[in-house]
């Protein structure tokens, strides 16, 4: 399953530095506007300490995590939706993302008081949100105009109705309009890839020495809590230096293990949570592997993640929870105590399930 998180923000907010830290890349991250022009794209493993715990018991030769893709686009400026600063180009680059990470720079030495920091951060967030809304308004209006020129059958009329309803919400400046349109699961909505409908997290990029005067961060969290937008705090420069130091003398698996309990790991896992994703494991002497799936994925659908033959010839799924396996540390012992279940094709896979699929082709 492909998972893409787009990184957006004003120029010099620290987006490219964060991108480097998250992905181990070395893209230019300079303190001047539009240092990034073309989008930077890279994969990073989803850190999950359960993989290492499973490997320790099974003694498998390798670990195979799932991956998340990050897209770092150039800084957006006020007027980006009208094309200022190549804004339209940059906004279109982010439409393919499944979720958005909005980076806000909170490290200016000129901002002293907590009140001023709070107001300044809100203003920066408002600039970006407004550009996303205006971009979607333009996209929605253009599509409505196009549809009204077509032969108005029932399908076209329904699409126009849905888009006009959505346009009204946008025009009222109600960002995160998925709160109002969550039941409009129409192909026209999916087709247009509206930016304001994408799940979002706010990433406050603080200065390395900002141990004091961070009361405003709690205010920001409280402010966005009713919108169910997670607010995360990070020092991108510190994290980038940390990852660079690990890369010089550590293995890939060791770096992944360190990511799990870091602020970077929190951001990566938040992306999974925003998209309501779970994972299940397959284990053996060859490898311990994580598989990313949607919530409410059935055993039959999960089997197809591994191989189409598994799905085509599905018989049963032997399932044990991660917690039970860690308790008994042996499939034979877990089976003796009735902890391994035989499930059918409609079984809803739970997060952390360890599964062996039985099939016949």
TrEMBL record:
Transmembrane segments: none
Alphabetical list of InterPro entries matching this protein: ATPase_YchF/OLA1 (IPR004396), Beta-grasp_dom_sf (IPR012675), G_OBG (IPR031167), GTP-bd (IPR006073), P-loop_NTPase (IPR027417), TGS (IPR004095), TGS-like (IPR012676), TGS-like_dom_sf (IPR023192)
A Pfam family recorded for this sequence: MMR_HSR1
Keyword ATP-binding: yes
UniProt-listed SUPFAM superfamilies: P-loop containing nucleoside triphosphate hydrolases, TGS-like
Keywords linked to the UniProt accession: ATP-binding, Magnesium, Metal-binding, Nucleotide-binding
Molecular-function annotations in GO: ATP binding; ATP hydrolysis activity; GTP binding; metal ion binding
Residue span(s) of domain TGS: 276-359
Listed cofactors: Mg(2+)
OBG-type G domain location: 3-276
Gene Ontology CC annotations of this record: cytoplasm
Protein name (record): Putative GTP-binding protein
Gene: ychF
């Amino acid at each position: 399953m492909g998972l893409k998180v787009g990184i957006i923000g004003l120029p010099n907010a620290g987006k490219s530095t964060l991108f480097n830290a998250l992905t181990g890349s070395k893209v230019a991250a300079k303190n001047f506007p539009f240092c990034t022009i073309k989008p930077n794209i890279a994969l990073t493993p989803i850190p999950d300490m359960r993989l290492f715990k499973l490997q320790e018991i099974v003694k498998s030769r390798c670990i195979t995590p799932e991956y998340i893709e990050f897209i770092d686009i150039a800084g957006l400026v006020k007027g980006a939706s009208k094309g200022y600063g190549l804004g339209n180009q940059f906004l279109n680059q982010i439409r393919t993302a499944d979720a958005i990470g909005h980076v806000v720079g909170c490290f200016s030495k000129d901002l002293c008081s907590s009140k001023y920091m709070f107001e300044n951060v809100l203003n920066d967030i408002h600039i970006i949100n407004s550009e996303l809304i205006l971009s979607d308004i333009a996209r929605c209006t253009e599509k409505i105009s196009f549809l009204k020129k077509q032969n108005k059958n029932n399908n076209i009329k329904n699409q126009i109705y849905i888009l006009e309803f959505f346009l009204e919400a946008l025009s009222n400046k109600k960002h995160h309009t998925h709160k109002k349109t969550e039941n409009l699961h129409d192909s026209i909505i999916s087709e247009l890839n509206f930016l304001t409908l994408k799940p979002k997290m706010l990433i406050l990029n603080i200065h390395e020495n900002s141990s004091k005067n961070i009361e405003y961060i709690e205010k920001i969290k409280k402010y966005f809590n009713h919108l169910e937008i997670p607010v995360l705090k990070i020092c991108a420069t510190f994290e980038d230096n940390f990852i660079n130091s690990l890369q010089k003398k550590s293995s890939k698996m060791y770096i992944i293990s360190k990511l799990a309990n870091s602020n970077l790991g929190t951001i990566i896992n938040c992306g999974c949570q925003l998209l309501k994703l779970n994972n299940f494991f397959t284990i053996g002497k060859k490898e311990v592997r994580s598989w990313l799936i949607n919530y409410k994925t059935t055993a039959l659908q999960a089997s197809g993640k591994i191989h189409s033959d598994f799905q085509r010839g599905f018989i049963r799924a032997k399932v044990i929870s991660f917690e039970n396996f860690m308790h008994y540390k042996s499939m034979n012992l877990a089976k003796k105590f009735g902890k391994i279940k035989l499930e059918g094709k409609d079984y809803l896979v739970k997060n952390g399930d360890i599964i062996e699929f039985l099939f016949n082709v």
